[in-house]
Design goal:
This protein has 252 residues and is α+β, with helices and mostly antiparallel strands. 44% of the residues lie in helices and 9% in strands. The chain has 10 helices and 5 strands. A hairpin with a 5-residue loop joins strand 4 and strand 5 (248-251).
Length: 252
C-alpha cells in the first residue's frame, strides 16, 4: 500500500483523480456506472442482409410514424388489387373497370366468372384482326400477318370456299377477299373491316382454332370447316368481343 500511495502522490492531479476513481470502482462496483462490454458471439465480416433487415424491422416496430406509413401503403396496395365487378372475380385491378363497363352486357352471365383477362385493342378498323392476333399469342400489331394468312387461306382452298360463299351471293367471295385485302399500315376504312361470320370461319380454318364472337348484336362460334376433331385435337379457343361500331376486345 505504501508503494501505491507514493505512486499516487507523485502523479499530476488529473491522473491522480482518474486512478482513485478506478480503484474505487474495483473496491465498490455498485458506486460506478461502468458496465462490462457486450460480448458478440460472431463478429466476422459485415452483417448479413437478413440480420440488417431484422434490426430494421425491430426498430420500425417501435416507430409509430413508420407504422402509419406502412398501413397506408398496405391499404393502397389492396385498393389497387380489388375486384372491380363481382361477376368477374378473376379480373383484379382498376385497369379492368372501364373495359368491363364497355363489354359486360355482351358477355353471357355464365361466361363471366371464367374470364381471366380482357384487352381492349386499338380501334383503327383493324381491331378484329388485332384481337385474333392476341388470341394466337402474338402482339396486336401483328394484325397485318392475320390479314395475309386469311388471304392465303382463300387462295389455297378457293375450290371449297367459292361454292360456300357464292351459294349465298355470287359476289360474296370477291367481297370478302376485298375486305381482307388491306396491306397498308394505316387505319382501315369501313369496307376493309372484318366481315363476320365469313372471316371468322376463314380464321378458324386457317389457324385450327375455335373462335367465340360476342357482340351487342348476338353471339356466334366458328369452327374449322374442313377439319374434324381428330385433326385439331389440341385446338385453342379464341374469344373476341366486337361492336358493330368500332370497338373490339380480346378475351381470355
Amino acid at each position: 500500500m505504501d508503494k501505491i500511495t507514493q505512486q499516487l502522490q507523485s502523479q499530476p492531479p488529473p491522473v491522480k483523480r482518474s486512478m482513485i476513481s478506478k480503484l474505487l470502482a474495483v473496491v465498490n462496483p455498485s458506486m460506478t456506472d461502468h458496465r462490462p462490454p457486450e460480448v458478440q458471439n460472431d463478429t466476422r465480416g459485415r452483417p448479413t442482409d437478413k440480420a440488417r433487415q431484422q434490426r430494421n424491422e425491430e426498430a420500425d416496430k417501435d416507430d409509430p410514424k413508420k407504422k402509419v406509413v406502412q398501413c397506408s401503403r398496405l391499404k393502397k396496395s389492396k385498393d389497387k388489387e380489388k375486384i372491380c365487378d363481382e361477376e368477374f372475380p378473376l379480373l383484379v385491378g382498376d385497369r379492368y373497370k372501364n373495359v368491363i363497363e364497355t363489354f359486360k352486357e355482351w358477355l353471357p352471365t355464365r361466361y363471366r366468372p371464367y374470364i381471366t383477362d380482357i384487352e381492349n385493342v386499338q380501334p383503327d378498323g383493324n381491331c378484329s384482326f388485332r384481337s385474333i392476333a392476341r388470341g394466337l399469342g402474338m402482339e396486336q400489331n401483328q394484325w397485318l400477318f392475320v390479314r395475309q394468312q386469311l388471304l392465303d387461306e382463300m387462295i389455297i382452298n378457293e375450290p371449297l370456299w367459292i361454292p360456300m360463299f357464292c351459294n349465298i351471293d355470287n359476289e360474296l367471295y370477291n367481297d370478302i377477299y376485298d375486305s381482307i385485302y388491306h396491306l397498308e399500315v394505316e387505319p382501315a376504312p369501313y369496307r376493309k373491316w372484318m366481315q363476320l361470320p365469313y372471316a371468322g370461319l376463314l380464321a378458324a380454318q386457317k389457324f385450327g382454332v375455335i373462335i367465340q364472337h360476342f357482340s351487342n348484336g348476338g353471339n356466334q362460334t366458328y369452327f374449322p370447316m374442313f377439319d374434324g376433331p381428330t385433326t385439331c385435337r389440341g385446338h385453342t379457343t379464341i374469344s373476341i368481343a366486337l361492336s358493330r361500331i368500332t370497338i373490339s376486345s380480346f378475351l381470355s
